[in-house]
Amino acid sequence: MQYPKILIAFAPLQIPFIGLLTAVLLGSCATTVEAQGPAILKKENFKHYADYFSRMEDENITQAISNEDSWAWMEDNIPLFEAPQKNFEEIFYFRWWSLRKHIKETPVGYAMTEFLVERSYSDKYNLISCALGHHIYESRWLHDPKYLDQIVHTWYRGNDGEPMEKLHSFSSWTADALYHRYLVTGDEEYLLDMLPDLQEEYQWWVDNRQREDGLFWQIDVKDGMEESISGGRHVKNVRPTINSYMYGNAKAIAKIARLKGDDVLAKEYDQKAAEIKELVQENLWNQEDLFFETVKEEGGFANVREAIGFIPWYFNLPDDKNPYHAAWDQVTDEGGFLAPFGLTTAECRHPDFRTHGCCNCEWDGAIWPFATSQTMTGMANLLNNYHQDMVGKSDYFTLMEKYVESQYYRGRPYIGEYLDEKTGFWLKGDQERSRYYNHSTFNDLIITGLVGFRPGPNGQMEVNPLVPADKWDWFCLDNIAYQGNIVTIFWDKTGEKYNKGKGLHVLVNGEEVGNAEDLERIVVE
């Protein structure tokens, strides 16, 4: 589906905008961010969320930032969001408040946990690498870069200068995530410094998971997706997960190499990506089911549609043509993945749907936020980068609405491991391990999907909200740290909410750089 494009160039802007041009050319500039504040929203108007979240729980585990200090940390670090649908707004602040709980001080710098409670299979400092890509995508919006800078370094260099012992315990899309983080911060120096680490990691997966035919295999539990319909804890299947991750990582390393000026290395990794893309489309696309599916170790499709079949769009891997678009028909089909409380991890019509029992981390159909956030990121890419008519803005909004509604437990905001698709009941909700489970994204989906702020290379940015025109008459995303500047995006259908004009508006450091009459794409060059 295509949307109208409004192109705004930097050149016609007035003198105050030169600050943005300078910041884009120089990269991240913390002093500029500190000098600017939100253009429309007032930070103090959202403090009540942090106060409520802190009151509603017993703080039995405290890491680097306590509940008492949570608002001060949020005030310094997070974008601000206001919407007429208050549950969206509440969960936005809850997810920042809960993410903060997982920032941990270690002898080698900050780290980020997945579980607050200690796990027997974790690495030093109770670290688990499974959701590292999610941690980077979500945390890239924090104003202070030191947290994510150190979190990544702890994983790759925190073991006496070497990677953590269990870095490769789970499939990874870290190179892709770090490149997308660079698009937000503009910190080229940090990214280039990480290039050798990312190459070394890529080669580890080639040496340990690549078959002779060029495809990658993985055990489903090492994808963080145990007890799936298609696989098993000891089965070396060819899965859409790791193959998509390796494609995304290869594309990212090629782009990082070009930033360095190393065209030879860039071409090498572009070729790796091109080969994986061809292999995925030729071997993992089931033409009968019109879906990307797992291929068994012994050969042949597993013959089940699973949410992992949407992951190729997370990295814009599939060609923009039929039959690939047809896969997305399944997200609006109750026989497919559409359930009362969100998107299931396997198609509801399959005879083995939720047959593995309950509450031992089954990925045979129940809803996992890990998978939901991957599918929703892929869907936003589809709506922004592809020409199709299978799904539209209203479908994206409906699924985001279900995602929001699912993040409550006994009437309070909650994020856990996984939930029943029909009742919304959190299946490990009464276990301490599940509380504040840091295994997914949400705020990144609000920022890049629903509000539609999509940073690009060379300081380019697009705004393409996926909010249907008949849903919200107004919303505002403010205090976005972008390459040393503050971006504000607001929609005011009548002009009476913010008194700054009708329509969609984009501001940088308080100066308008783009506007549109309707909720449509704005490109700022």
Proportion of beta-strand residues: 5-15%
**Helicity range of the residues?**
25-40%
Query: What is the terminal separation in angstroms?
Result: 23 Å
The radius of gyration computed from the alpha-carbon positions, rounded to a whole number of angstroms, is: 22 Å
Low-confidence stretches: 9-31
Report the count of strand segments.
19
Quote the average pLDDT: 93
Strand order of the largest sheet: 2-15-16-17-18
The CATH class of the domain at 170-428 is Mainly Alpha
InterPro entries: 6-hairpin_glycosidase_sf, 6hp_glycosidase-like_sf, Glyco_hydro_65_C, MGH1-like_GH
Keywords: Hydrolase
Organism: Echinicola soli
Domain Glycoside hydrolase family 65 C-terminal: 458-513
Task: Walk me through this protein's architecture.
- By secondary structure, the protein is α+β, with helices and mostly antiparallel strands.
- The chain is globular and about 65 Å long.
- Helix content is 36%, strand content 13%.
- Helix 8 packs antiparallel against helix 9, helix 10 (240-260) packs antiparallel against helix 11 (263-283) and helix 13 (369-385) runs parallel beside helix 15 (443-450).
- The longest helix is centred in the middle third of the chain and has 22 residues, at 188-209.
- The strands form seven sheets. The chain has a five-stranded antiparallel beta sheet with strand order 2-15-16-17-18. Strands 1-19-14-13 form a four-stranded mixed beta sheet. Strands 3-4 form a two-stranded antiparallel ribbon.
- 51% of the residues are buried.
- The chain has a domain at 170-428: Glycosyltransferase, CATH 1.50.10.10.
- Residues 124-440 form the Mannosylglycerate hydrolase MGH1-like glycoside hydrolase domain.
- It comes from Echinicola soli.
- GO terms for molecular function: hydrolase activity.
- Pfam families: Glyco_hydro_65C (PF03633), MGH1-like_GH (PF22422).
